[in-house]
Amino acid sequence: MTVQGRNEAPYCRQMLLHGVRVLDLTQYLSGPSATRMLAELGADVIKVEYGPRGDPSRTLPFVAGDSSSYYTQQNRGKRSVCIDLSSTQGCGLVRELAGKCDVIVENFGPGVLERRGLAWEHLKSDNESAIMASISAFGKTGPLSHLQGFDLMGQALSGMMHLTGDRDGPPQFTGSPIADCAAGFMLFGAIGHALFHRERTGEGQHVEVTLVDPLFAMHSIAVQGHSATSGEWSQERSGRQFSIVVPSGTYQGPEGWIVLQVLEPQWPRLCEAMGQEALATDSRFSSAEARIANADELLALVEKWMQTFESDASILNHLEANRIPAAPVLSPEQAMRHPHFVERGMVRTVNDPSFGDITVTGLPARFSSAPQSENEPAVPVLGEHNREVLREVLSLPEAEIAELANNGVLMTQEK
C-alpha cells in the first residue's frame, strides 16, 4: 500500500519502510516504542490519540505545557489524530483509517477493541492484506488471558524478578521497564517478518506479543538448567556476582564500580593480570565448580587487587591490555554523554514544542543500505494532523472534517 505524497525521493534515498502506512492505536510505552522505531525507518505512522487528553503518557514525567518528555521520546516522527473513541462515529472513523493502512498496532486490555468493533476479526474483513500487531499483558489465549497487566506483572510472572536482587534480599524489578521495552522491540521485529511474508504471499495476519513471553524467553539457563538436572538445580538471586560464571560480576574500584566478564579462557589471563598466577591452579579456584563454591573469597581477592590502582581508568586499561572484558558501570547521565553512544547515533536531540531541544535515545540498529536521517523528526501536538490525515487518507472534504470537529469526534490540543 503506497503512501501518496509523503517522503517522495529517488529509490536509492528511500528509508527501509518508505511507503508503509501504520495506524498506531497504542499508548504508554510498549506499543509506542515499537511504532516509534517503525517511524524512524521511514514508515508513515498515524497515531490515534483518545480525546480529549490524548495518550496518557503526555502526563507522565516530565511534564511541560500539554505534553511530556516521556511522550516525546516514544512518539517523535508520528502524525497525531485525536478522536473520541467513546462515540460510535469516532470508532467508525478509526475503522475507516485501518482499512487504508498496512499495519495496525494496538496495546489495549482484554475486550476493549472487541467492544468497539475494532478487533482483528472486524478489521480483516475490511482489509485482508493488513497486519494487525497486538501487545497485551498475557495474550489472547491461556488461563491468564483475561487479566490486565503492566510491566511489573511481566517481570514477576516471567521469573525474571525472582533472579534480580541480593542473595538474601527480596526480589527486585529492574531500573528500566524491561517487560514493556522487550515487548515493543519484539513486536517491531515481528512486524517486519509479517510484512516480508505479505510481500511474498499477499497475506495479512494478526501478530501477537505479550509482556511476559519475551522475558520468559530470555532465560539463558534457568529453564533448561532446571530441566537438565531433573530439578536438582535452580537459579537463584546472586546479587553482584554472576552465580554460574565466577568471578564475573561487579566490583568496587577506587572511584566507582567496574564489571568483569570472566569465562574459562579468561580466568588464567586474569590471574596473570593480577600478578597472582598461582590462583589459576589453586584448588579453591582451579575449576569452574570450585570458583562457584568459593565465590565470596574470590570476589574479595579481586576487589582487594583493584584497590591497589589509583583510578578506575588505570584498572580498565590494564584489563584491556590483558584481553579481559571489563567496563565501568555508568549512570544514564554518564552514558548519554559518552562519545561511543553519540558517535553511533544513540543519543539524539529533537525539538519539542514544550521543552525546546531535548535529548532522547536513538534507534538501536544500523542499516548499511538505508540513509541516515538528516533532520530529527518532529514531535506532534495533540490532534495536529487531524485535517491532513483525513484529507489525505480518507479523502474527506473540508466540510465533513469541520463537522466532525464541531461534533466533538475530532479534537485538538486547544479543544
Automatic annotation (TrEMBL):
The keyword Transport does not apply. InterPro entries: CoA-transferase_III_domain, CoA-Trfase_fam_III, CoA-Trfase_III_dom3_sf, CoA-Trfase_III_dom_1_sf. Gene3D superfamilies: Crotonobetainyl-coa:carnitine coa-transferase, domain 1, formyl-coa transferase, domain 3. GO terms for molecular function: CoA-transferase activity. It holds the Pfam family CoA_transf_3. The keyword Lyase does not apply. SUPFAM superfamilies: CoA-transferase family III (CaiB/BaiF). This is CoA transferase. The lineage of its organism: unclassified sequences, metagenomes, ecological metagenomes.
